[in-house]
Specification:
Helix content: 25-40%
Largest sheet: 3 strands, mixed
CATH superfamily of the largest domain: CBS-domain
Number of domains: 2
CATH class of the largest domain: Alpha Beta
Structural class: alpha+beta
Shape: flat
Number of strands: 12
Strand order of the largest sheet: 1-4-5
Radius of gyration: 24 Å
CATH topology of the largest domain: CBS-domain
Distance between the termini: 19 Å
Order of helices and strands: HEHEEEEHEHEEHHEEHHHEE
Number of helices: 9
């Protein structure tokens, strides 16, 4: 896949819009709102399954929209709703007293690619983004959970493109004929490589998840800003150093055993272990490690 044609292969952002989100009015009671969520989370048929199939999937709901006279007036996150349900007198509360009123929304006409929503998720630290029409009326909902897999898939494609472009550079350097064409092709490949690497790094740096790259001996070759913020350090404090001192000794053997199991047939493993923060605090983390080509 050439970089110039990458956008053609991206899925339409509208495919990620839930056109039938759970909606309530401000006057709805919290118990009724919870009942609606439970109803929506009941098992429903899998997409594209036969009409007689008994296969089901459970809907994932992180928020509900608050609508009054066809206008979006608020948003109620499931996490906030569950927290309120533990307080005294919540049964008498209305949605209007619990909803978020200052909303970040995106017009459907401006939703041209998934990066538009992804940037808003990162900028405002939100995980639900209502989609509205030109009149401000809600037409659907996009969640971070729905677009993250597509972002990760794109990162993988960009990694592959970087490798292909590097290979092309080597071929151009080895060629001894058509000098003028070599120079032009090499310049184009270098520009495309820089654009691809910049786009890849921008996506990784914007991620809220901790991301790093390391050599077989455990030495860091890359850490994103989220990783640095979590440990309260700068990239230069980590690059070239091993991450093993960040893991308690009793947990290192577990990690090393799983790392040793990596192969071409099994390039990924998931590992849970503790980490030591600069303050000495111990925390648990879950990592997904993938064997990859370094560049």
């Amino acid at each position: 896949m050439e970089l110039a044609n990458l956008s053609v292969n991206l899925r339409s952002p509208l495919e990620f819009v839930d056109r039938h989100p759970v909606t309530v009015s401000p006057s709805t009671s919290l118990p009724d709102a919870i009942a609606l969520i439970r109803l929506a989370m009941d098992a429903c048929p899998l997409p594209n399954s036969p009409a007689h199939s008994n296969e089901t999937v459970t809907a994932s709901i992180s928020c509900i929209l608050v609508v009054e006279e066809n206008q979006l007036v608020g948003l109620l996150r499931l996490a906030d709703l569950l927290n309120l349900a533990t307080t005294y007198g919540w049964q008498e509360m209305k949605v209007s007293g619990a909803m978020t009123r200052n909303l970040v929304v995106l017009k459907e006409s401006e939703f041209t690619d998934i990066f538009t929503a992804f940037k808003l998720f990162c900028q405002y630290s939100i995980d639900c983004l209502p989609i509205v029409d030109e009149r401000g009326q809600p037409v659907g909902l996009v969640t971070a959970e729905r677009i993250h897999p597509e972002i990760y898939s794109l990162v993988k494609m960009l990694q592959q493109e970087v490798v292909k472009l590097q290979q092309k550079q080597c071929e151009l350097l080895e060629s001894k004929s058509e000098i003028e064409k070599q120079v032009s092709d090499r310049q184009n490949a270098e520009n495309a490589l820089r654009e691809s690497e910049a786009r890849y790094r921008a996506i990784v740096q914007d991620q809220s998840e901790l991301i790093c790259r390391y050599l077989p001996d455990g030495k860091f070759t890359f850490v994103n800003q989220a990783y640095c913020r979590y440990f309260g350090v700068q990239p230069e404090d980590l690059l070239g150093n091993s991450f093993m001192p960040l893991i308690p000794e009793v947990d290192r053997e577990i990690f090393q055993e799983q790392y040793a199991s990596l192969s071409a047939e099994k390039p990924v493993f998931t590992c849970e272990h503790r980490v030591i923060l600069p303050s000495g605090e111990i925390r648990w983390q879950q990592w997904i490690d993938r064997r990859a080509i370094s560049f």
